[in-house]
Design goal:
The protein is of the alpha+beta class. Helices cover about 35% and strands about 20% of the residues. Strands 3, 4, 5, 6, 7 and 8 form a six-stranded antiparallel sheet that branches. A three-stranded antiparallel sheet has the order 2-1-9.
Length: about 325
């Protein structure tokens, strides 16, 4: 399984080689001075495109409409479900999540994960057990893990994501779970300052201090089984906890049944599909060659304009003539004796 994840990460990175440079050019040197000349392009096409398109993709909280079907449909039930879902969309800050996913999609692709989360404030039937509500999370493009052999998300043998977690937090979760061994997690703790969290691309160069963190890879395997009645769940969830320092170590959790839709907890969106590849094509990625050429010409024009000089040569004895020429407007005729 570790080999599979390593192959998936390597395949993902090959699709994101230009993204760091694209984001740098999008925010420009005035936002973050990273001493990279490439961030000083005169034409910020990415900002222009996103400021125009984003309000049309995610301009408000999504509106959900539920209708009862057939003669036996219960309109009151449909209205109650509609009210509940629209209330959930507002309270869960779904608009902000969709905006972030839309920006990812414009650059490369957007990914989301839906998972139930406990809410202690909800009314409880059994004391001590809180209710659950769905939560949509944005998965950053450089955190997504997909089977590299897949040509579509529906035929992937596994889909997942990576995140950084405190060792103590993961141990606390393991104590309340039958699928993770807290002692095994404790064995990942090292005396080194770096346990591998810095290897996450979005953290590189930020000088984040040591936080005693490890990398967790969470995978959904559609064909996985736990030995229980497979008709009650759709695949399994497996978590890999690892260090990425020189002393590389990894542990795996026991398979946990996934009680959710058959399509899994992940959704992948993109502007364009690519035949034979699971990852979509982002608009800015498709236009990257044109944007590079455009800014190359603009830089050349800027250099040429800065080097342009217009000189007028006169006889050294004609001081009055030189002054007349200097003070004359464009296309003015200066008589010469």
């Amino acid at each position: 399984l570790v080999t599979e994840v390593s192959a998936a990460v390597a395949w993902r990175k090959r699709h994101l080689l230009e993204m760091e440079d694209q984001v740098r050019k999008y925010h420009g040197a005035s936002y973050l001075d990273d001493h990279m000349s490439g961030s000083r392009d005169p034409e910020n096409y990415a900002f222009s495109f996103i400021s125009l398109v984003l309000p049309r993709l995610a301009n408000d909280v999504p509106r959900i409409q539920v209708e009862a079907q057939g003669d036996q449909g219960d309109d009151s039930t449909a209205a109650a479900i509609e009210l509940a879902m629209n209330t959930w969309a507002t309270r869960s800050h779904l608009r902000r999540t969709i905006e972030r996913i839309a920006v990812d999609m414009i650059f490369t692709w957007g990914a989301a994960m839906v998972t139930p989360e406990p809410v202690q404030s909800m009314r409880r039937i059994e004391p001590g057990h809180g209710g659950r509500t769905p939560r949509v999370y944005r998965i950053a493009p450089d955190r997504l893990v997909i089977d590299p052999a897949a040509t579509d998300l529906s035929d992937a043998r596994y889909v997942g994501h990576q995140y950084v977690c405190d060792v103590d937090d993961l141990i606390a979760k393991a104590d309340d779970s039958e699928y993770f061994d807290s002692d095994a997690i404790e064995s990942l703790r090292t005396n080194d300052d770096d346990m591998g969290a810095e290897s996450i691309s979005s953290r590189q160069g930020r000088n984040v201090p040591d936080r005693d963190e490890i990398i967790v890879t969470e995978l959904w395997i559609p064909d996985g089984e736990t030995g229980e009645d497979s008709d009650l769940y759709n695949g399994v969830l497996i978590r890999l906890a690892s260090t990425a320092s020189e002393d590389f170590r990894v542990i795996s959790s026991e398979p946990e049944p996934y009680y959710g839709p058959s399509t899994g907890p992940y959704t992948l969106v993109g502007a364009y599909t690519v035949p034979g590849d699971v990852y979509p094509l982002g608009t800015l990625t498709a236009a990257q060659g044109l944007l590079t050429e455009l800014n190359s010409h603009l830089k050349s024009m800027h250099t040429a304009a800065g080097a342009y000089r217009r000189l007028v040569l006169v006889d050294s004895r004609g001081t009055k003539l030189a002054q007349d020429i200097a003070n004359s407007p464009d296309l003015h005729v200066v008589p010469v004796e």
